[in-house]
Amino acid sequence: MFLDKFNEECAIAGVYGDKDAANLVYLSLYAMQHRGQEGAGICSMDGNSFYLHKSLGLVADIFSNSILKELKGDVAIGHNRYSTTGANNVSNTQPIFAEINKGKLALAHNGNIVNAVSLKKELVSSGSIFMSTTDSEIIIHLIAKSQKDSINEAIIDSLRLLKGAYSLIFMTDNSMIGVRDPMGVRPLVIGKIRSGYILASETVALDLVEAEFIREIEPGEMVIINDYGIKSLKPFEKCEPKPCIFEYIYFARPDSMIFGKYVYDVRKEFGKRLAQENPVDADIVIPVPDSGVVATLGYSEYSRIPYEQGLIRNHYVGRTFIEPSQSIRHFGVKIKLNPVESIIKGRRVVVVDDSIVRGTTSRKIVKMLREAGAREVHMRISSPPTKFPCFYGIDTPTRKELIASTHTVEEIRKYITSDTLGYLSVEGMYDCVKKLSFCDACFTGNYPTLHGDGETENKF
Ligand code: AMP
Asked: All domains of the chain, ordered by start, with CATH?
């Protein structure tokens, strides 16, 4: 395959104008570890030189005090990489650093470029040599190839060629630049930190380093931060914003504020609406931790069915989806979750999760709950059926692996062996976010752009 993968749900962060820039980026990445556990990196700059350290693994394991000390300077950017398929190697970790004809440049990318394959083919045929198999490296090559003299103009020139989703942080030898694609699919916020500024995917990063939230970078906005302050440009053709609704459903942390709302508040509303649309007589309602917790609180509040912590999660196991092969994933659910028998035994149990992808997790959980003595098991999902793959940066398997794309709700219920199964409706989901324009392609198949090129469409 030309590119080894197409799905990059990641975290990005950057600090400009603080002597502890690398340390602050490290803490920001730590707060956003949930957005990617495969690898991480930080690139810093002291005016003369760039310093880069990246590796596979978790943020806390990759960086030590002595490594952070070597990341000198008062500007730094960082990246957490998320990946489920394809080459799991250090050359695919970010930030990407390159010395090009327009100066030194580092880049951290969250999102997914849907015309990556055709862009890469063109670049390779005109002489570009790629060091990784990520779509993000394409951006660096485009900038190097641009006829524009200034780096800012070359960045704009290059980004105009991209289709898809990108939240980006660049570091040049005198600035830090934040960009969100014109649809604003992935989040990016800016804050004030001590003497400087911070950019991050989620506000939880700002909370940890006690930065003051200024605002979200707007869809299609490019923010240039340098010693003269902040400059905002809108260099792209305007289009309807399409922030990703799955950030609310699953991906972002509940304590983050994204797209103008706290994820917690939205998830709780999803849970209430789910209870309204899918009522059932039961003794307790329990979450699949951690992804189902907040929606379960909403379900319990609306239905008045008591909330219990009926499944306990081993927090030292990564998200099950991260594990590469089907056989490990099956095993993963077991090592991650264990039912509390005294809570479950003899009870009619409602169990709430945020989504069903392949159905593996739900099937295991229903079995687990029955083995723990549940009298009835009612599965409730706080999103609509996931029927279509994502091309914009959330990892989803190909269409035929998504159980809801080929099975009715009743067929899924049979597969997961629950007594009943209920999903949140698309209308219900929209009522909860009270905002019309989102990318909801994973539920409706309404992709906001063309899919891109042939390789990407293989998923379909
Ligand atoms: P599955 O077992 O394939 O049906 O996966 C369902 C589980 O995966 C649910 O517990 C979700 O919380 C979780 N999930 C949904 N989407 C993603 C994603 N993009 N990455 C990781 N986990 C996910």
From this structure: 11-241 (3.60.20.10), 265-315+328-459 (3.40.50.2020)
